[in-house]
Design brief:
single chain, 278 residues, alpha+beta, 8-stranded antiparallel beta sheet, 31% helix, 29% strand, globular, disordered N terminus
Length: 278
């Protein structure tokens, strides 16, 4: 007599060794971004004043970014996984494979007409992620695919941008719905003034520290945290740190030998996730 065959158990996706951002974490934020979750509303005006009146930066217009978080519809698959307990340890692997994927959709006003997504796939040992530049129309498509991707939360950053002959600085308030999530500052070099890689991060950190020093209700410890600086990781950029950042970019399928707007988008994706904003 032939034994009845059992339905195949979905296998867990194994994280590729070189594509696992969880297994090889680098500092929480890249030094071009600083998030101050406890900064009062008045801090924005103070920093803008410092930029324009003390450092002679010129305001160049409005700055805004928006990021929406989606989950795939995994309820049916999760319910199926719960029925596999009798197949342990295979059931454990199956449950891993059936965890929902996440999709993040980002637009930046200073990158006109462009958008980016990051798709995060849970896998055995962590998660696998990829960052891709897409058409803005994808957001309309996602709105029509609610049976596949469910919108969960969205974050908006709204503020103003300033520039000097060397740097561009953007500062804005962070909000999830009607809830304030502090202040976000971004600093970057103008394309014609980008220094050698070993000087890139220390100079951005120095600029941000100058802007943030003495902001009311923001402690020096919070500033260090915002800049990704710890006692064991001084502000100088070592070859090991550069290599770690390059490896992290590579883990989300971005080139490690040059910086693009896709790398900038990844910085925002990572900040919103690590700070539990989304």
């Amino acid at each position: 007599m032939v034994s009845p065959q059992k339905d195949p158990v979905p296998s867990a996706r194994t994280c590729p060794v070189t594509h696992n951002p969880i297994a090889n974490p680098t500092p929480e934020n890249h030094p071009s971004l600083a998030h101050l979750p406890t900064a009062p509303t008045s801090a924005s005006a103070l920093i803008q004043d410092r930029l324009s009146k003390v450092l002679a930066y010129r305001p160049v217009g409005r700055w805004a970014i928006a990021c929406r978080f989606y989950r795939d519809q995994a309820a049916a698959r999760q319910a199926h996984a719960q029925g596999l307990d009798s197949l342990a340890p295979e059931a454990v692997l199956a449950a891993h494979a059936l965890r929902p994927k996440a999709l993040y959709f980002l637009t930046m006003d200073h990158a006109v007409g462009k958008a980016w997504t990051m798709i995060v796939q849970p896998c055995e040992g962590g998660e696998d992620a990829v960052v891709v530049e897409v058409d803005r129309e994808l957001e309309i498509v996602l709105g029509k695919l609610k049976n596949l991707w469910t919108p969960r939360q969205s974050v908006k950053v709204e503020g103003i941008a300033f520039e000097s002959p060397e740097f561009i600085v953007r500062i804005g308030s962070v909000a999830v719905g009607s809830t304030s999530r502090g202040l976000l500052i971004q600093a970057e070099y103008r394309p014609e003034t980008t220094p050698p890689s070993e000087q890139h991060q220390p100079r951005l950190r120095a600029l941000l520290r100058t802007l943030l020093k003495g902001v009311p209700e923001v402690s020096p410890t919070e500033i260090d945290s915002a800049l990704g600086v710890t006692v064991s990781e001084p502000e100088g950029t070592t070859a090991e740190e550069l290599d770690a950042i390059g490896t992290e970019y590579q883990s989300v399928r971005l080139p490690r030998d040059r910086i693009t707007k896709s790398h900038e988008a990844y910085q925002f994706f990572k900040l919103f996730r690590t700070r539990s904003i989304l």
